[in-house]
Amino acid sequence: MSTASVPILDVRDLDIVYDGRGRRVHAIQDASLSVKAGEAVGLAGESGSGKSTLARAALGLLPPGESQITGGTLAIAGTDVTHYTPRQWERVRGRPLAIVFQDPLSFLNPVMRVSTQIGESVRRHDPAADVESRCAELLALVKLDANVARRYPHELSGGMRQRVMLAIAIGCRPRLLIADEPTTALDATTQSEILALLRSLRTTLDMSLLVISHDLGLLRWNCDRIYVMYAGHTIEHGRTEDVLERPAHPYTRGLVEASRMRRLPDARFATIGGDVPDLRERYTWCPFFTRCTSAFEMCRSEMPPTYAAPGTNHAARCWLLRPQEAAA
Amino acid sequence: MVVGIVVVGFLITHILPGDPVDVLVGDFPAPPEYVAQVRHEFGLDAPLATQLWLYVANLAQGNLGFSFVNRQPVLSLILQRAGATLLLMVPALMLASILGVMIAVRAARRAGGAMDSFLTGVSLVGYSIPVFWLAQILIVVFAVKLGWLPAQGMFSIRTPSSGLGVVGDYAKHWVLPGFCVTVYYLAVVARVARSSMLEMLHQDFVLTARAKGLSERAVLWKHVLRNSMIPVITVIGYNFGYSLTGAILTETVFAWPGLGSLFVTSIANRDYPVLAGIFLLAAVAVVLANLVTDLLYAAADPRVRIATPAIA
Amino acid sequence: MTRRRSPGRTFIRGLMRNATGVASALFIAFLVVVALFGPLLYAGDPLAISDNPMLRPGGGHLLGTDDLGRDVLAELIYGVRVSLFVGCVAAFAATVIGTLIGAIAGYVGGWVDTAIMRIAEFFQVMPTFILAVVIVALLGPGLLRVVAVIALLSWPQTARVARGEVLRVSRLDFVNGVRCLGVTEWRILFGEILPNAVGPVLALGTLIVGYAILLEASLSFLGLSSPDVVSWGRILGVGQRFLFSAWWLSVFPGLAIFSTVLAFNLLGDALGDILNPRRAQA
Lengths: 328, 312, 282
Hints:
The complex is a heterotrimer.
Chain A: E1 9-20, E2 23-35, E3 40-44, H1 51-58, E4 67-76, E5 79-80, H2 86-92, E6 97-100, H3 104-107, H4 114-125, H5 131-141, H6 158-170, E7 176-180, H7 188-205, E8 208-213, H8 216-222, E9 225-230, E10 233-239, H9 240-245, H10 250-260, H11 297-301, E11 307-308, E12 315-316
Parallel strand pairs in A: 3-8, 3-9, 6-7, 7-8
Antiparallel strand pairs in A: 1-2, 1-4, 4-5, 9-10, 10-12, 11-12
Chain B: H1 2-14, H2 20-25, H3 32-41, H4 48-60, E1 66-67, E2 72-73, H5 74-109, H6 114-128, H7 131-145, H8 164-201, H9 204-211, H10 216-241, H11 243-254, H12 259-268, H13 272-300
Chain C: H1 7-17, H2 19-37, H3 72-108, H4 110-125, H5 128-139, H6 143-170, H7 173-180, H8 185-221, H9 232-241, H10 248-274
Helix pairs in contact in C: 2-3, 2-10, 3-4, 3-6, 3-8, 4-6, 5-6, 6-8, 8-9, 8-10, 9-10
């Protein structure tokens, strides 16, 4: 198998449980996701859907004492990392997988200069390089002035900090960059700048992207494929246009309509009724059942498997997609 | 601030019951002219405002007054005894700070583990125990019952005049009083360091550091520690500032010849100038320590420094 | 819909979970009982000088007698009152003064804030113990004096905490909401903001109790206590002279001081944990 076709990140039927303060939460249930070389993939969902957890799990960043992978596999560039120890994770992080977070003020060390923080990535992943010049190079790549290097995080604006985070991440020479809500904390203008930067970096550095966001519009313009998560499950995935134009899962449909701010006949906005799901139980039935307007008996008792949906590589976990029996 | 301290110091010396002249003159009845002469010499017959002015002027020249009881200038008396106090407190404070941080680091890494419980226990005890009681117990156990260590003083009576022998003698005498002092400050430092570290360990930037692929050790030392030690610096500085106060009781119990025991004997002797002098010294020490701590804090935390305007 | 719990119930639940907190609270309750009813066990004046000085523990005197022939156990029991009095009154005064001043500083802001904080700094810099010693030495011993000195020099700590909490809470949105209802500023401060600030202030106050007790004991140890008052520290001071012969004069009073202060410190810690406003509600 050539390296080109092995996914850089391959998540299969992953189960993750959080065990904090005596409460057990099934944060991720049966989730599957993959990103190949050169792709830009999106991960959509509301807060609490598990998308950030999945992102952090991909780098082994979940606190080892409180969380555990209880099922499924996680593979990075073909290597099974499901049961990696923290020591082993240290070698995998950064390259081939790197991550940038939202709201960089709290994600950057306040007492270290920018150059030091970027320098750490370089030293770790590029030991032969001259740190100073590589640093300058990275800053230029993220379109920052060279004198930013000597600054501290609190002296920079939000957009600049996000660029610094990007510089730190790409300093690791990743094959896949995960961006967890990269623009949520920024204003609209800066948002589009950062996204444009991400797109250009992708081509310049031949890097794959996994963008996580609740903003469907953002994902539409930046990703080739997207996954939709709900209650820890990946309930739909496919080519972006297919998923967003012809959503197969009722949840996705609701999400798309809500994001378009579609008006109902009585002039109210279309929303998804009901409450967010309780993750203390592991679902053996469809998690969206209680809020689904198209639900029926089967949805209450069994978890739907993944069925194909119209479009390229489009699939969703919904009983509505079950191919009807041929006769009667 | 300093003005306030000086005023209070003055008040202590001069507004008080009991005539210092009586102490000087002693028990025998003195002719009134003699008393008046003494008064005049020491400026005690001038109006209060003049006295205050004199006091300040004297202070500026480093004249802290005269100890009638000891028959020497207060300043020289203090200087004589300061050395001993420093020899007691400085090693203790350093030991307490270093040990405190080390224990806290271990404890915070495995929060809730054995080291953590140990730290919490030790620091609670150290914080709550009356230091003079601890001293007494230690003396009874180690000096009396076991006879391992000396019970009093800084040197033995027959101490060698110089060389390694002196150092060894001093060290032997330091152990018990030093331990008493260390316990309290260790408790304080360890508590602050631990809670600071625990807070830092859960900060977001630690996640970023890990995401870069840094080893746990690197994350701990370069990222977590550098941030969590900032409040610890404040505490350690504070401790140094208050070290004179902390020395008093311990020196008394162990008859350690420093400023603390001087302070206590001056109470019994009603040697107010000395009391005022030590009070001044203690307050100044605190102010100085705070100043140094502020500077160190600014050096450690760039957010506190004069802010440079954020580049747009 | 989640049921709303009253703050009191949440507090009790939190307290229950904290074993050491409960234990120390119980111990303190025990002390209070002893303070109130202990003297019933010992008729007569514990300060009466008797003819049996320096008796070892045992027989009629469970814990021995001191240099003036007074029963140590009796002195311990009567001493509870003194310690609790000094501790609680001083801490209470410091807390009330500090909270008021700190709240005003935090709420009003501006030059008032700066001025108050400067003054607080001045008081905080004073070495408390030394000053206390000097004052007692000059003006003579007296419990109220000690209490006053402690309160006077401890209020800045409370003020700082109170100010911090007021600053934090006054930024929350509901304050503006209440303001829009036309509630006067004073009532906002006392009715809405301060109740939210109570937690850390209370925890600190408890710690001050322990500190005050230690301070009073230290003063008595140095012989600066009034002879009309039974003080644990005084016995320890005596014990210092007879360290090698009368161990019971050192062990028991010291134990009393230690356990009392420990209990208050534990309680203060527990309160700090429970009442911490940043703590996530279970």
